[in-house]
Design goal:
Elements (H helix, E strand, L loop, with lengths): L7 H24 L6 H5 L5 H11 L4 E5 L14 E5 L2 E9 L8 E3 L5 E4 L8 E9 L5 E9 L6 E2 L1 E4 L5 E2 L5 E5 L6 H6 L1 E5 L5 E5 L4 E6 L8 E7 L4 E3 L2 E3 L2 E8 L3 E6 L4 E6 L2 E7 L12 E4 L2 E9 L15 E10 L6 E5 L17 E4 L10 H7 L6 E5 L19 H6 L7
Parallel strand pairs: 8-17, 10-18, 19-27, 25-26
Antiparallel strand pairs: 1-2, 2-5, 3-6, 4-5, 6-7, 9-11, 11-14, 12-15, 13-14, 15-18, 16-17, 19-20, 20-21, 22-27, 23-24, 24-25
GO molecular function: acyltransferase activity; peptidoglycan L,D-transpeptidase activity
Keywords: Acyltransferase, Cell membrane, Cell shape, Cell wall biogenesis/degradation, Lipoprotein, Membrane, Palmitate, Peptidoglycan synthesis, Signal, Transferase
Organism: Streptomyces antioxidans
Amino acid sequence: MEKRVMTDGKRRKGLVAVAAVLGGVLTLGACGGDGGDDDAKNDGHGSQSQVDEAAAKDASDAHIKITPKAGATNAGINSDTKVTVSEGKLTSVTMTSVATGSTVAGTISPDKTSWKPSGQLERATQYKIRASAEDSKGRKATENSAFTTVSPSNSFIGNFTPEDGSTVGVGMPVSIRFDKAVTNKKDVESHIKVTSSSGQQVVGHWFGGDRLDLRPKDYWKAGSTVSLKLDLDGVEAAPGVKGVQEKTVNFTIGRSQVSTVDAESKEMKVVRDGKLLKTIKISAGSPENTTYNGQMVISEKFKETRMNGATVGFTDDDGKGEYDIKDVPHAMRLSTSGTFIHGNYWGAKSIFGSVNTSHGCVGLSDTKGAGDSKTDGAWFYDNSQVGDVVIVKNSKDKTVQPDNGLNGWNMDWNQWVAGSAVGGA
């Protein structure tokens, strides 16, 4: 048998070829292989393109969308958050606070195409959401997102009166005080609506940049219901400051009661539903400290309260209050600056109906401790409610300012409408 001997050149070429093949195999094992033929990449499971195509065919048609978008840092706390799905049905949605891990309650719609939180979110809080859905073939889809709600420094709210569900007098305006100054008054006011079952037109009036009062031209109709709707979520009050409120408040107007104090004759006539109910002797402000004239609305009631002259500018030479009565009975506030109509037990009974002696309040005969229901002070307190009107006339003082308390009725209708940012529309 003939033995063939390989030359060194042929041997080197063979080693190079083997090395090249081995190198290709090693490369395939390490990186998945970009070179070589399809058979080299198959590995018994089909080509990469075939694998990708199979995966695409198996992907769910359900498309989940979470708002606000991932990474948002100024999200609203009411209606901004929502999960929706197209070409599928939601199977689960979980929303949690990142800081506390607490779960936010929410509801999937009956058709299983949307989800939203059940209540208001917290400000300046980071939340995460995980949502899952299935398409008509049962193929699953999952989406995750995280965002942060608006901070207190970048948001504003309105504190309002009267309270939801309350019954108030015919003079009660809707008064809203904002915790940030509003420069975009038109946009803010246009997202606040007050309507009445009486059909009365209601118009807002701005007192500065942080207070908006709304009322009809004349007193509310007795027995009517009034609705306040705050639709301020996302509304910009000033650059970088957005609203976070979505709220509806309903209150009832009670019977009509308007009481007129005549500082000259020193008596008050209480008229309810157009009929004289009672005439009461009073003592108004002294000649040195007269009582404001005008239409004033009872804004607060206290069975007993402390009154210190120092809090309203009545001080002696030592800087102490000219008076400090710790248990004034049956007191009802008429102005922010300190005008009340209240019981008086420290004055002689003879002053009522005969002499004005107060520091500007309207005094009614009463007893210490507010325990005698037969006194004029107790009777008026028991028969009055927040929102009732007390008119003072024939005093030697000026008319109370419309923004000193809830006393916008002292402004005529044209002036009132002129203070609306939306023109009374």
